[in-house]
Amino acid sequence: MYYANKAQFDKKAKKILKIALRYGVIKSEDEVNVILCSNVFSDTNNCALCTDNAVILGRRKVGVLFFADIYDLSTITSIAYQKCDLSIVLGGGETVKIGIAADPAHYTDFISYVLAKIKPQGVASPSVSVADEIRKFKELLDLGAITEDEYNAKKKDLLGL
Fold first, then answer.
1. Who contacts 156 (Cβ-Cβ below 8 Å, separation ≥6)?
2. Which strands make up the sheet holding 54-61, listed edge to edge?
3. Are 138 and 64 in contact (CB under 8 A)?
4. pLDDT in tens, 114-129
């Protein structure tokens, strides 16, 4: 499930937020802007939260949800969906992965939100060629993270057609 609007946070999302509050990783529920969690039993399976400043990963261990992984947005250089995993690349090249049983479209929404948050904070990034961008979107299409229509629309946009 993907929750992008605080008004849409349902019972599952609110339970995740209460656990995050209990662990002290957030000070109030209002801090969390988006949540990516499993479609089933989201209160006990892995999840990811995004605030204005950080991505917080919740990992299930022995049936209990723990929040131990907090990554400041300024340290994140990239985030992607790969084979049912959320992959976060940090500044030193370290990659953190977490499996979340969510729809690929929900991954895409969460990733788009995080990318929009980290882009303005980045230092001058090296220019990426149009071919590289198209290749990246083709990989997302092959992984099933985006649809054929989304791929074609982005390709036309990048090529200026």
1. none
2. 2-3, 34-37, 47-50, 54-61, 64-72
3. no
4. 998 887 644 545 556 7
Average pLDDT (20-30) is: 88
For residue 17, give both structure tokens. Answer: 């937020």
Percent of the residues in the chain that have a pLDDT greater than 70, as a whole number: 85
Rounded distance between C-alpha atoms, residue 9 and residue 123, angstroms: 34
Which value, in Å, is the radius of gyration of the alpha carbons in the chain? 16
Name every residue whose Cβ is closer than 8 Å to that of residue 127 and which is 6 or more positions away in sequence. none
Burial class (CB in 10 A: 0-12, 13-18, 19+), 108: middle
The pair of three-digit structure tokens given for residue 48, joined into one six-digit string: 């990811």
Q: How many angstroms separate the CA atoms of 99 and 84, rounded?
A: 6
* Tokens representing residue 107 in the block: 């991954």
